[in-house]
Every structure is written in C-alpha cells, then in structure tokens.
Write a structure and sequence with these properties.
With 162 residues, the chain is an alpha+beta fold. The protein has 2 domains: 1-33, no CATH class; 36-161, Trna Endonuclease, Chain: A, domain 1. The protein has 3 helices and 8 strands. Strand 7 (104-111), helix 2 (119-130) and strand 8 (134-139) form a beta-alpha-beta unit. Helix 1 (50-64) crosses helix 3. The protein is globular. The model is unreliable at 11-18 and 28-32 (pLDDT under 50).
Amino acid sequence: MTGDCRACAGHGDVEGSKVCLACGGSGTDPDYVPPTRVVAKKTLPTRTLETDLVKLWIEKIPYRLPNCRAFRRAVVDDISMRGHRIIAGVEGQADVYVYVKGGTVVEVEAKMAKGRMREAQIAWAAWCKLWGINHLVVRALAGEEATATVDRWVEELRRVIG
C-alpha cells in the first residue's frame, strides 16, 4: 500500500505492520496516534484481532490459573535482510503452548469467529492426539467483547487441565 504513513505524509509503502518502508516509522509527525479503544484496561486497536485476544489471554492465565504458564509460539520461515534463511518452529504448530505445574502440556490454537483450521494445523492437532498431548481450539464468537472472550478461553483451558 502507498500513502498510509502519517509520519512522513505517506511517501513510502506500508507493509502489514503499518511501518513506512521509506521512513521506517521515524517520520516527523509527533501528533499521530493510531485509533484505539480500551478493553480490560489494555489498549487495543479499533478492530480486535486474534493476536490481541491471545496476548490478553496469556497475560490473564497466571492470575486465574496460578499453576499454568502460557507462551506465544512464533513459527517463522523467512529470509533475513542479509539473505540468511530463518526457520523456527514447525508449520501448523499451535499459537500457544501452556505448561501446567506437574508436567501437563496443552497446545492451544486460537481462531476468530470465522477462522478455519489450515491443513497443517489439523495435522498438528492429530500429532498431538497421537502423542497424548492435550490440544485445544479456542474460538472468539461474533459480537463478543474481548474481555468475555478471554474469560471464556480461561474457563475452556481450566476444563482441559482439570
């Protein structure tokens, strides 16, 4: 896209991160503030994304489930700016992995209301089942507030870990 960078008056192309390729987001417009709304005392973009919900959920888990710790997983297969290939994780791995004190592990895939599991994600869920690893798919509901979604996801995890 071109012209979305408020920092440099839209001179450069903008990738999905909304950082201008021309100025790197370091333009001179100090008054630019992206539109936000407050949910659960956290500032979120106007449109709540899966990433936002997962982040809130991971932050809430230790308070609601003290014996659990959740971690976001990054699956990467890309080329660095210097031309080196970067590989981390396995395609289809769940978004989050949860460790429960005592050794239980839960793989968690988060989906928005209309989100569907990709073939690689279905294969990962099958692998988890084969190896006796808990696999949970949590889903946001259409029209549901972010806080309600996160609270419901905590309760879904509670049911899985017992």
